[in-house]
Model the fold of this input.
Amino acid sequence: MRYSVLSLAAQVFRGPSALTPAWRNATPKPAYDVIIVGGGGHGLATAYYLAKEHGIRNIAVLEKGWIGSGNAGRNTTIIRSNYLLPGNEPFYEWSMKLWEGLEQELNYNTMVSQRGVLNLYHSDAQRDAYARRGNAMRLSGADSELLDQAQVRAMYPFLDFENARFPIQGGILQRRGGTARHDAVVWGYARGADRLGVDIVQNCEVTGFLFEGGRVVGVSTTRGEIRAGKVGLAVAGNTSRLASLANLRLPIESYPLQAFVTEGLKPLIDGVITFGAGHFYVSQSDKGGLVFGGDIDGYSSYAQRGNLPVIEDVCEGGMALMPLLGRLRILRHWGGITDMSMDGSPIIDRTPHPGLYLNAGWNYGGFKATPASGWCFAWTLAKDEPHQLNAAFRLDRFATGYVIDEKGVGAQPNLH
Done:
C-alpha cells in the first residue's frame, strides 16, 4: 500500500481486518548477492539504497533481535551537519539533504523536524572556534549563524546567562538541524527496502563467517549457513565482537552512552540546545518530555545500561545551563552501545578480507548520519570502492596517519 489521503479514506471503509504488515518477516534463502548484518537504521538504509540506486535486489538484512532493537532505538534523535573538517562536513551535509527529502522518498512519516540546533559558547576563544566552524560549514553548503548573547536570550530567556562559572556569551545556530523519530526512521527504511524485494530476517544472529580461498563467501547464523557474494557489517557497538569472528582487530572500543527523558511539560524548548562548557544536549519530544544526554560512560562495555556517576555529571551540566531542570523528575533512562573510533570519526570501507565490508565507528554521530551512511555504504558495496563522500573514512587511516580528528583530542575513544 502507498500511503496517501486516498488510501487512508479507502482504509476507513475496509476496516482494520484489511490492514497488512508494513514489511515481510522473511525466511532466509540459502544465498544472496549481498548480506547486510545489522537491522538498525544504517543496515536497512544500506539495503534500501543498494536496491534503489544500484538495482541489486537479492539482499538480506540479518538482525539478531528485532529491527531497531539496538542503538537505533536508543538515541536522542538529533540530526545536524555542523562539523568542521573536510572529511566530515560534506558527508554530514549530504546526510542532512537526504533527511530533508526522506519522508517523500520513503512515503513514510519519519517525523523530521527542522527546529534548529544551537551550540552555546562561553568564552572568546570558543566564539572564535565556532566562527571558524561556521565558515567551514558554509564552504560545504551548510547553513550557520553566529549569534550574540542578546540573540540567544531572545530565543531561550530561561537559560542561566549569568552563571558565575559558565556565562553564556552566544552560540552558533544551524536552523536546518533538528530531530527525527528514531523508530519511524527504522520502520520507513524497512518498509522501503521490503517494497524493493529485500529480505528482512529477524532473530537471526551471525555466529561466524564462511571463507573460501581467503574470501568471505557467507555467514553462519543461528538459522543456518547463508552464502553471499558480499557481506557488509553495520552493527554499531557490536562491531569489534563480530569482526573478531573474522579475525579482524579494529581500532574501535565500545562504550555505553546514556540518554534520559523527563516527565512531560508544556512546550518549552523549540529546538536543540547544547552546553558549550560541558557535554550536555537537550531537546523536547512531541510528548512533552525533555530528552537529554552527555558523555559516554568511563568504561568499555557491551551492556545497554549505564552507571550513576555519568547520570550525576549529565544532570550537573543540565543544571548549570537550565536551573529549572532541578524541578523535573526523570521518568526513564537507557544506554546504547557506541562504537568509538580512535579519532572520533567513522569507518566506511572494505576490510582486508575480500568480500567483507565495514560500516562502523560512529561515536556520538550515528543517528544523524543514517541516510548518508546507508547511501555511501551501498555505493561502496556496489562499486567495490568508496564514494568521494566517504573516501576519507578509510580503515587504514590509523596506520597511515590520515586521521580525521574533529575535536583534536588525540587517539583516546573515551575523549571523543
Observations:
- The CA atoms of residues 49 and 55 lie 9 Å apart.
